[in-house]
Design brief:
Two copies of one chain form a homodimer. Chain A has about 350 residues and is an alpha/beta fold. Chain A contains eleven helices and twelve strands. Chain A folds into two domains: about 130 residues, Rossmann fold (3-Layer(aba) Sandwich); about 140 residues, Response regulator (Rossmann fold), CATH 3.40.50. The structure holds a DNA duplex (16 and 16 nucleotides).
Chain lengths: ~350, ~350
DNA sequence: TTGTAGGCGTTATCAT
DNA sequence: ATGATAACGCCTACAA
């Protein structure tokens, strides 16, 4: 399919000047007589001329294109990060390639070679706090390609990493429960080889210890972030020990936990108080509405894109790892009083 | 930032041939002596040479790049479509630009000009059954750009449209409820100016009429697809009339509906049976697990990308509007028996 | 202020 | 079988 028929030369012919002069008005460089500028602009409009980014890139060696790599698009957290990143990129004049990158189990090829060939100027890797061994992808990425990762800083120079305050979030959730009088607080983590899981659990432990409590391993559950795993982990916990509160380290698992609790006839929050993590949009409609730790995912994406573009333009980020705050959002599942009735908006 | 230092000429020099010959082996065109081919390949490997897609595009006028435009990334349905489309595109050697396109209320510029400048070969518009007036975007798109839309066929030639069987889905949901003995069945639609809403409601009406029932306007609610709107519409319905079943036209609104029902003390499914639409992943963890109409969103994305690429390559799609099936998934909220206990997997 | 080369990395079309 | 030459659309010098 051919398109992009109109070139700078056509415009020049139409305006009766050399194509060089057209280039000048396009880039607002050098002096151009006001009169000819107007004439050229008229020609541009008439012909609906649009400069070819391709040709420009070839000579300038700049594409103004970012690559966004993610493992799972349809995960809300990832999607929001990407959404934020794309928006910020667009504001700064960048376009974004996306790809559900990661090599499949069948050895499906990585996308990054394609990115490289298309001269992507930088890469944003949106794996949500994955573990080191899942980052074999780094080997495939050119050493000098500007890179921003989410939640995990690889041992590479010149890579910026952004994330959220996982430890603080975990601590806040647990402290809240402690403050409500709970002493046997169970927790369900994501896969423990992931940094986010480790950090959130560390926050949990910190809060307990600050109150003089020990971490009881019987109260420690683990899932894989899915609702099903939250359901399972909760049933195991229930079968194994007693507890009056449960801190689930993401909202999807919390949804499964609530279901397990319901099935076992444990009323929430009266018999078991529950706190989640993420603050996904449907959280106010959980049964009961979920108290949870908010993650500013959209802002995380914006920040990541900003840092990446800065990196591309030779402005290394000041901090290696910037972490965004994770405030607690109190709803009903924790049993705290404060709750304003039916929520009315949601994105 | 400069990169992509190694060019075809470097390879040629290294292999001691003209860069022309290198091009030949790269494209497997023309005859090349086996011996020199091997030598050149060695040079390519040694130098880690990767051809520049930019330069290729300039001469070939092909970019192998698609544009994916969406209104809302973080909506699960959209995200899945994009995920499917990107995957299929990649399989066929295409890269995908994404953008949360639509012009913002502040008049923020459309992304499509940027797409155009970057020589995007085709556009996939992932608006989920939006209404005609939301498609002013079409005016901004070059007439001859291959286009695929989801759920809505604009009055343009050469545009392929894919969607799901909304009418049938609505009919199936309603029939199911009728079969369970319900006669006063309320429904909550999305915005009625959207085709998807109209179609699902038409299916609802068809099912009723086939059973000899009239559509009672008191039973007709409308929302905006959000949980909050589902909650509100349900409360209005409850205040206005009596019904024993409720067909909510997407799962997010259904979540709000369930909450409203809970708050009003109406037990689901005993007092009110509920059926949703979409089959989002969390649906098995609703309280109670939601019976809903499944939408094959990922497949929709794959299909869309396939059609788009065919269009680009001059193979117009056979049908104007391909619709994928929407089977009913029975869980607990409708009160039908069949339900296998705790779900164990989920994406 | 405006026009004339030269080149960005590649492919296509001729020669050789 | 291989090499030279001309595009592709544009920008950066440099000259006029």
């Amino acid at each position: 399919m051919k398109r992009q028929r109109v070139t700078i030369k056509d415009v020049a012919a139409q305006a009766g000047v050399s194509y060089q002069t057209v280039s000048r008005v396009l880039n607002a460089k050098g002096e151009v007589a006001e009169e000819t500028r107007v004439r050229i602009q008229a020609a541009i409009d008439a012909l609906e001329y649009r400069p070819s980014a391709i040709a420009r890139s070839l000579v300038s060696q700049r594409t103004h294109v970012l690559g966004l790599l993610t493992a799972d698009f349809s995960d809300y957290t990832h999607a929001r990060i990407i959404e934020g990143a794309e928006m910020e990129a667009r504001r700064r004049g960048y376009l974004a390639f996306v790809s559900g990158g990661e090599r499949g189990p069948d050895g499906e090829p990585l996308t990054s070679p394609l990115f490289t060939q298309h001269q992507t100027e930088g890469l944003l890797i949106v794996y949500h706090g994955a573990s080191r061994d899942q980052y074999t992808i780094f080997e495939q990425i050119p050493r000098d390609l500007p890179l921003v990762t989410i939640g995990y800083a690889p041992g590479r120079p010149g890579v910026a990493t952004v994330g959220v305050q996982n430890v603080e979030g975990g601590r806040r959730a647990t402290e809240h429960l402690l403050r409500l009088g709970h002493r046997r607080i169970a927790t369900i983590s994501g896969p423990m080889q992931m940094y986010a899981s480790q950090e959130r659990r560390r926050g949990y432990a910190k809060a307990l210890q600050a109150t003089g409590l020990d971490v009881d391993s019987a109260l420690l559950g683990e899932g894989d972030w899915s609702s099903a795993s939250g359901y399972r982990a909760t049933r195991e916990l229930l079968a194994r020990t007693e507890f009056t509160a449960l801190f689930v380290q993401n909202d999807r698992m919390a949804m499964g936990a609530l279901q397990a609790l319901r099935e076992q006839g444990r009323r929430v929050p009266d018999e078991v108080a529950v706190v989640g993590f993420d603050d996904i949009p449907s959280t106010p409609y959980f049964d009961p509405p979920l108290t949870t730790v908010h993650q500013p995912t959209y802002e995380l994406g914006e920040l990541a894109a900003r840092l990446l573009i800065d990196l591309i333009n030779g402005q290394p980020s000041s901090a290696d790892l910037t972490r965004l705050p994770t405030p607690l959002v109190v709803r009903r599942s924790c049993g705290a009083e404060a709750y304003r009735p039916p929520p009315s908006s949601e994105r």
